[in-house]
Structure formats: C-alpha cells, structure tokens
Amino acid sequence: MAYLPNPPSLPMTPTSFQSERVPAGWQHRHLLDLERLTGDEIRLLLDTAALFKEATDHCRRKLTVLTGSTVVNLFFENSTRTRTSFSLAARRLGADVIDFSASTSSLSKGESFIDTARNLEAMGIDAVVVRHSTPGTPHLLAQHLDVGVINAGDGPHEHPTQGLLDIFSIRERLGDLTGVTVGLVGDIAHSRTARSNLWGLLKLGAKVILCGPPTLVSQRWRELGVEVSHDLDAIVPRCDVLNLLRIQFERQNTRPFPSVREYAHLYAMTSDRLTRAKPDLLILAPGPINRGVEMTAEVADCRQSLILDQVTNGLAVRMGVLWLTCGPREPAAARVLVPPVSDARTRG
Amino acid sequence: MTAATGTLLIRGGRVVDPAQCIDRIDDVLVRDGKVAGIGPSTTAADETIDATGLVVSPGLIDMHVHLREPGREEDETIETGTRAALAGGFTSVACIPNTEPPIDTQAAVEFIRQKAARADTCNVFVVGCVSRNREGKELAEIGRLVEAGAVAFSDDGAPVYDAELMRRAFEYCRMFDKPILAHEEVLELSRGGVMHEGLVSLVLGLTGMPAAAEEVMIGRDIALAEVTDGRLHVMHVSTAEGVGLIRAAKARGARVTAEACPHHFTLTDEGLRGFDSNYKMSPPLRTAADVEGIIAGIVDGTIDCIATDHAPHAPEKKMLELDRAPFGILGLETAVGLTVTRLVLPGKIGWPRMIESMSTLPARILGVDRGTLKLGAVADITLIDPAMEWTVDVKSFQSKSVNSPFGGWKLQGRAVATIVAGRVKYRLGRG
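ok -> structure tokens follow
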C-alpha cells in the first residue's frame, strides 16, 4: 500500500504529537462542511489523518494527545458506524467520550436541541460531534456554543468526515487527485456523502460525474462544473473511481423510480459492467451497502473494492479532525487565527 | 376610532395623493378628523406640523398582516401588532383570519373589532375565513361575516385546496363584491419544503418548494375567477412566471389583483446559506430573476399592491432546526424603508406609484373609505422622510417578535409621523 510522503510544511512527526500544536494552516474552530474549506485546508486535514494513521499503526494503537479532553457524540439520528468510528477515534487519542442519544434525552420532553447542547457545554466538554436529520443544524449549534462542533451528517446536506475518508482512501491509492475522474452513482438528491465528496473532489482538482435517474440527479448540478449523466454504462469506461451511494428510501417523499429491480437494472454496479471499466477502477461505497441494489456481491468483494479501507481510514480521518478541533493551539496565534464568535456566523 | 376635534395643519410637505393625481408641495388642513382641504393655508390651527422635506401621503394600508390574536398572543397581539403598524407608517391593516380559533363567525369578527377599538391605535379591517374553521371543506357564513364588517375572505396560511369550494366561494362572494385573497400553493409539490427549489436548495440539501407549486395554483385560481367572474386577489406573488400569469389574466379583463412583499423584491434564496430561519417563509425567497420579475410587475402595475405578510413568531419558535421553525417574517416596521431603498431610490418607481401601491389600491381592493386625502375623507395621513438613513434594530421594534432578516440593514426612508383620523398616533422619537 502506497503512503503519501509527509508534507514538509507540517511540523508534526508521529513520535512527537505530545508537544505539538494544531498547525497554523488550520484556522477553524469547527468542521461544519467541506463546501467552505479551501483545497489547502482539505489537504491539511488529509495529511493530518495520514500522520495519525501511521502513528497509531493503522489506527490500532492508542495515543494520549487529547487526554483530559471530552468529546460528546450528540446524535439526533440513528447511527452505529459513524458514532462508533468517532468514539473509537476519540479514545485512540486519549479523550473521554460521552454518547448522547436524542431518544433518551429531555428532547422528548420538549427541550430545544440548542438548550440540550448548551447544557452539555456547561458540563465542560471540548467538542460536540453532531448528527441531525435537518441540514444546517451543526451550523446553528456552532453559533450558540463556544466548543468545537463537528458535523457527523446533517440531513442530505453534508457529511464532511465521510467525504474526507472517501477522498483519503482514493488518495492513498492514486496520490494527487488532479485530473482523476470520480463517478458518484445513485441517490445524489438525498446524499450528504455525495455533497461532501463533490466539494472535496472539486477543490482537489478531480473531475466529478454524478450519475443516476433524473429524479435523483438534477441537471442543475452542472452549474457547479460537474458532469451529470443518467447512463451508467456510458460513464463506467471513463471513470478512475466509482463511489456507489445508498438509496435513501427513508428521505424520499415519493419513490423516485418505479421499482428497486428497475433501479438495479439501470444503476447497480455488476461484474458485467466491471468488465467494461478501466482495469484498475477503484470501487467505494459509504455503506451500509444494499447488495444487489447499488452493487452486486462480487463487486463489493472484488479486488478493487476499497470498502474496508474506508472503514479504517474513517478512524484516521476522525482522529485528524478531532485533533484539529480540540488540540492545543499556539495561544498567541489562536487569538489571531481563530476568528471570534463571528466565525460561525459569517461562514454560515 | 375616535376622531380628533379641532384643527391640524401639515405645512409645506410634498403632498402625494394618487387618487386625485396630486403631487405637489402644499399644506394639508385637517378639521375634526377629516381632511378639510389641500392648499396654501393661512388658518391658525390648533396644532401645526412642519412637513418641509417630507412626503405627505394618505395613510398607508397593509392588506396582509397576521396579528395572531386570538390564540397566539405569545407571538403578537392586536395591540402590539397595530403599534408596529403605526411605527411603520401604516394607518390601517387588514388582519388575516388564520388565528386560533379562525375568524369564521360574527362573534370572532366582533372580538377583533373590540380589541382594536380598545387598543386605540390604527384601523383594523377584518378578513374572514373562506371556509368554516379554515378547513377547506364548506363555506364559512360569508354573508354574516360581511354584516359583521369583514372586508375580504381568505384561508391564507393554506390554499383553498378543493377547486370546487374555491369556485363556489368566488361565485358566492360576487353578491357582496368582496375579493378572495388567495394563498397559492399546490401542497403535494411543496411538501416538506423549507425553501425555493433551485441550485441553493440542491447544494444545502434542503427540501425545495418549486416555483411551479405556486404558479400552478395561480393558474387554477385565475381560471376559476374567470369562469365565475369572481374577484381574485393573489397574495404574496413570488415568482416571475406568476407575475406573467397575472399580467396575461389582466390583459384578458379578468378581475384579478395581486400583491408582493418587500422581502420578495429584496432577498433571494441565497439568504438561506446561513441556515437562518429568518429567511424561511412561504412562499419562499426565490431567485434573482424572480426578484426582477416582481419588480417589473410592480413597475407596470401587474402587481397592484405592496403588502408585508407580517408574520410574527416568538423567538423560541423560530430558533429551531430549519424544518421545525415556522414560516414567516415581520414586515410592518421595515416595509417603507425597503420599498424606498429598493424601488424608489434606484428610480424603478416614483413616489406616486409607491403610495398608490401602499394606500390607494389596497383601499380600493378592500373597498374601504381610505387611501385618499380628498376633501372630507377620514384624515389618515402618513408623513415619510424620504432622506432619512437608519439602521434596522429588531430590538427596538414595537412588534412582540423579532423574526426579521433585516436586523442591521441600513435603509433610507422612514415614516416619521402616523396620523389616524386626525390624531397623531405615532411620531418617530416620541413613541
């Protein structure tokens, strides 16, 4: 497996995290979305994740860089994988983790989610990892809390750590993304993963093709400089990477295609379609995957599949994000570089 | 409203009264609550206001205001809402009946009128429900509501969904010559929506409300109004195509009128990028092309009136996730400033057209004896300083709520005095 060389601009080395501080290139208090980050900031996030992956021996070893910090998982929407990944990432860095689930909280007693978060903040925490079914909820929290807010998925809007870990996995194999063609296939309309991938990939110079039925892939996306296709067979031979997104039945008002069978016929990645792809095509899927809908079992398990890499890399990316969000900053620099309260407001 | 006794002289202002085609520097004399004449006055009045540099307008009328009382007094009351109206330069408001309970009985109309009389602020004209309990199933007792003083009918907040009921309402209202004020929305198309469907909603992952949801219903109601010869007033038009439908209907001679809101000719869906619920309203903020379409409609008269859709919501209700926060924003206290800044200063419309759209035509559509400074008319008068620059401070609003996206905006043009039936009910800086 090819590793990226450590970028020279980063002062950190795997053995000296203890004394290190958050690099000056990272000025944000929160990670709310990838749309409003620059390409350099995204590269910094990915490089930081790479360092942590190496320092923790593929995310298996524990560090102590965030010992004494407390991270709260504030999940208003069900999640097992992302929540576990964030918890594990925080523990790998030595932080304490508290899981807070909406169903057991006072939200069911009518308390607003902002009040809930403020209460948690008053208990002296360092970061909130928030998942919510409504777009913009992490942004709203960031306006009302002083602690770092990490978006772990806000409805169909963004899922920045998922986007980062997908891109991390591609970069690990292909290096620089400039000119790489990535097809995002499936339920683009309801996919936060699609949006985070799209912004991250565009900012790193990749070419993005969105593919799916018109009811799930609007032609309007072209205004952002991406290609839109409704014909998977036409785009497969041109792609270096395919990211197969789950159909989010739970977010759809009216079913956007006549049947799952018809959808699979048109858009499932099959071994037959694989034969017409570039031989080194990489297959990603953010999971959970519906075998037989987005792809067949042979594709999920084929040698080009990065699906299990993605899980490991998810830990590395989340360690990187938690470090950048909660890690110690240069006191003087922090005051200059971290925009005050208005940060969240002006950025959204 | 008790009228004043004695005389009031408004001296040296630019008197603009489109109903009489007047636009000149002159004096306005008020006697015993009535307009006693426009012309150079030498009479010694009991009270004199120096209006030099001010526009002297027939009292402004906002024909789309949610006063929230009864039922939602935490958002607004008849008293606070009408105080906000006065502070915004409005001498009259028409209150929309989507209260709890809705205004669908004589007793409910009477309640509003009593409360308004007790508040002793501005005129409150009552809009009654089209359907009983605003359920869209059967007609409310429209005749009895007219007897009680209702000036128009609306199920606003929601469309009259049943096309046959809407048709019957148009037919039935003809005998009273009352308009139906229609909220135009095909609910299936906007279901779950929080903003305009477009590139911004796509990027933000927010459920969109397509322009077609509004346009299809405008088309239906125009067809129904034409087939019945009924009077349709399209509320808060927000799309360029909607304006086009109304323009074509008017050209055919249909009895259709329309209003637009200041936020719809000022803001676009880009405002939602901050996920601020103060940009969430129905119909939603649309695109720059729609803003241009609305402005063109105001300029050429396709859109008769400017109305605010003043929709107060208590802070705890608005400070929620976008999909849980209610639709609507305040309008009364920013309408004059936005209209002057967005339309008059850039030369899109002149003062006569602005006042026609905010006083003359609302009075005509509602059939109320206001909206002019004719000799003997009730002396509802608004004085506007066209040059005053000011910054919107939601904390200083008279309204009980603060849900405005315009906080901190620098505007030009502001009502400095609001006179109702000859009595100065509001003066800027004097409360």
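Residues 58-366 of chain B form a domain with the TIM Barrel fold (CATH 3.20.20.140).
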